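Dear colleague,

Following up on Tuesday's group meeting, I ran the structure prediction for the three-component complex that the binding team flagged. I've pasted the input sequences exactly as they went in, so you can double-check that nothing got truncated or mislabelled along the way. The structure tokens for the whole assembly follow below. Feel free to forward this to whoever is handling the docking comparison.

Inputs:
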Amino acid sequence: MERRKFLKSISIGGVSLSLLQLDALASAIGYHEEGPYNGPLLTSFVSTTCGACPGGCGMRVRKVDNIPVGIDGNPIHPVSRGGLCPVGISSLAFLIHPDRVKQPLLRTGPRGSNEFKPIPWEEAENILLEKLGKLKDAGIPEQMLFVDSRRSGPGFDLARKFTHDFGSPNFYHSENPNSSIAANIWGGKDIDFVYDLENARSMFCFGAPVFESGINPVYYASLRSRLSDQPEGKKGNFYIIDPRLSASAAKAERWVPIKPNTYGLLALGMLNLIIKEELYDADVVDRLCVGFDDKTDNRGRKIEGFKSMVLKTYIPSFVAEKTEVPVDQIITLARLFATSPGAIAIAGDVATRTIDGVHQTWAIMALNAITGRFNKPGGITNFNLNPFKTQTGGKLNARPLVSSNKVKYPFLGGNGEIESLPDRILSNSPYPIELMIFNNVNPIYDSPNSSRFRQALQNIPFSVAFSSLHNETTALADLILPDCTFLEKNDLVLPNSDFSHQVVGLTQPIVEPLYESRQADDVLLTIGRKALAGNWKKWDSYKSYIEEKADELYKAGTGSVFSDQFKISFDSLLAERGWRRTEFKDFSGFLKQVKKTGGWWDASQLRKRQQGRFTATIDKFYLDSKYLHSMFQGSKTKLIDLIDAAGLETGTNTEYMLGAYRDFKNEDEQSQYPLALYTMEPTTTRGDGGRLDGMADMIGHYEYIKWRSWVELNPETASALGLSDRQMVWVESASGKQKLILIINPGLIPEVAAIPAGIGKQGSFQFGENIVEFHSGEREIFTGMPAISETRVKIYA
Amino acid sequence: MARWGMVIDLDKCVGCGTCMASCRSENNIPVANKKIALDGRSIFWMDMLTITEGEYPNIKKRIMPRPCFHCENPPCTKVCPVRATYKNDEGLVGQIYHRCIGCRYCVNACPYNAKYFNWYPPDISEEQKRHMNPDVSIRSKGVVEKCSFCAHRLIRAREKAAAENRELLESDFTTACQDNCPSHAISFGDLDNPYSEVSQLSHSVRAFTLLEDIGTKPKVFYLTEGEKHGRFKI
Amino acid sequence: MNIRKIFLAILLVLIACSTIIYAKLPQPVEFNHNIHVIEVEMDCSDCHRYVITDRKATLPDKDVCSECHSEIIGESVEEQKLIALLESEREFNWQRVYVLPKHVYFSHFRHVTLGQVSCQECHGEMKELTSPPDKPAVDINDMDNCMNCHEDRQVNNDCLTCHT
């Protein structure tokens, strides 16, 4: 057949065919194919708690024929009130993330080579049991080390109990300890302080862009909405005191640009004016504050009080010079703060990640104390947010690997402890570590000390990582155990937010665990049943454990399940008169209701606090450093040495070391690295948001940047450096350098470079660079928390 | 007949981007991969406009969510040669994907850049497809798409109201962005009902629409921020 | 090479295509609507469970069939096939005759319950059939069929009513 005729015949055939049955052809090639839904498309909703970050917002998952298809906020959740953040909304993507660990994996190649072989769960459990058994038999259980990602709640308690019952004191968890340690110092004892934000009106957020990078931005957003709904004159105000005009600062009533890491100084400067103009609450100061006025001691020596110290040292012109907030602004801020009803100063989480983080938090708290915000509606009060009984267990013989140490970090805690681990592991002191268990933590990415961590992991005989996604840490582990994502878990969660009432959110599985994943808590229970003494046989699964915890709530007889606003007011009204409305007859009814609504909370404090009646109050605020000094009694090192070594200036009087401000003594470093590095934390990078392709498309959306990191500079600074917008530049610190795209941002104070955090995570959707690589290891002088805000960089083309 | 409209309170909005993300998952908008995103062709039915005014330190930044405005007098429908985009009786500006021939006239006609052309076939894995919203179709390459005011929810709301043998209430029909906004900045409802929240808010002194002078008459109103928002001066 | 050969080629192509398209749909069981509807007097919704209440009518799954056919109740060969299938591990894989285009939102509930449209209008006289149909009675890929009906009944035929 000739070619032309052949083509002709084909085309004629084609045309006639298309005329005959175009639609049928279309369906034959799948044009009209239907989705995967062969069922009746029955819609159902499941209430659960978001686990994308520790914030604990409530979510409702929409399922169609039992397949989750969408996530909405839970409108009756007291913290999030129907809202969610972009990461929470997109968290179905974690379920089907291409980087999920699908089965237990045992390392076969050398560490870091990423060579693993899949093994069955039984084998994985046996390996873990064998390793634990060996340590137990040798009588060295303390050589097991457990690092957990949570900071509270039943799951956290169980993991801690696991480590303790095994006989190891080495249980560590990630948390920024600075504000709680500061509270211990100003309170003179353990204080669980909360901000009563439900009744507050004006938030002065020091170094806290609260709508994007606070501990729970969704809660602050809902607060903002409620404050805006108030009638004129009662509307709330947000004052964001931060170096960068972030989305939060742009959306707040006022933005006060400030030099990074000088928030505490500004608070003391405001205090100077408040004291000078006698705007403080003299009555409260008398009752609450210790060491405000001058006094004479037993020996007749005159001791200068906090008042004199502040009046002498923190004069506005001095503070203005250090903070770069003009004097008239400091005056206005101070007057506004002291006179507006319901004003409260909030210390941000990122802001306190400096070498003097405790000092800064303390100073901001002192502002609240002296203006009389303690034990007042909309102020600060003492309240335990954990409704569960927690037992820390008996004392163990062995000393923990890292502990507070008067020479260096007298109040080591949270991430500070984790930060100290690699050095101890590598130096085998006081004892070597044989087995390390990571529960969903990724120190190789998070820690500024990651190279040391990497070394430590190379040297540890055996390490186990529970994780739902492959990450930098699992790549070095010997055994990777596939954990469920929070959408497949059973749990009770205490939201980590600034919400000041007891809330317990229920996490229930939306789908059966995918692949071969198992909930880490369930694995711990299985191991515990087989290998540990104690009452581990009591629970046959983690679900029964949390049901027991829920029973604890039920038996306590306080609080109620989540309900709408009307029922909440009604309930608290009843509670005042000693009555209680129940929608359930017994525990199973309670559990059913909790599952339906998504959790339990105690609203009894709502009305009480509104009327100024507080169940537990704070009775002391130590303005002097007596408590601190007492910590150092009998030790060779002095508090002053610690402060001096960090380059902090103590003002005039050693009594008031917490009033210290930082002064750059190391001018060498300052001239070499002239720019302070400011860490941006957009909402889209919360939790593992930086690992979702959806967020990669949104991080930097406001700057018109996609799928990459960037660095921001003030136009003035940029032109002084001879740099122009959207140019590739080198950013270099003492410990690393990266090539980034430069964005000129007129809303950033001069002499500061801003870089987003939380991106550059290893995986299928990897993009951008890890900001932590710039950090050279400074730590908070009391808690050992990595002082990432302390980094300095230089930028050149 | 209702006339659906939206009011976005910029005083309440905190610029978190939840509306963008929730819209994307509700309406099966495929997430742009790296190449598409870097080409500047990622699709956000609900986008965020950022405008920075002034110089440091007297600077003001505005961040405003931007859905399709469903104009009363839409420029996009007038240029469509095939009536793939049109305004219906309830004021919704519809986009019928299988009618669209991909000429992109409407994309150019829209003064608010609310319309997006699908330059690439949807990049959706089988697993992702399982978790897509079955109420909304997945657009193919070569068609234009835009915010629909969650019109599929209106169908469902109607069905629900009819099943309960009652009139459609305003509260039955909500959009995904409105439902998930953590600061409840978005309200949605019938502009013709004088007692509805949206119609009252749209008559507020704070209300404005974008590019008022070109006469498109958007049905999405913004409530302006307080005068001192984000300002340095106290 | 002559004209006859070309014709032959076209014919072959056409026959091949039509066999692909009009091949009898391979159903797991030669279901007899006639017996179920006329003799046993069952309703459509007895097997197509969700036709009255939900969007999709659904084809019966194993649970539905085994409610009656847990043991043999008739004499047909097909029933024996069904019971063998019910006892086996395999799922039914009914071949759909009515395949809804992806871009259409269609709800049985809206049509059957709210609109009082009888099943016959789209599906024809299913009760007459003794074996499963091979092609739809009304071509739902042809929008004219939808539009005519909507116009006749004077119901909303706005695009957004069905296309989402």
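Chain B has a mean pLDDT of 89.

Cheers,
M.
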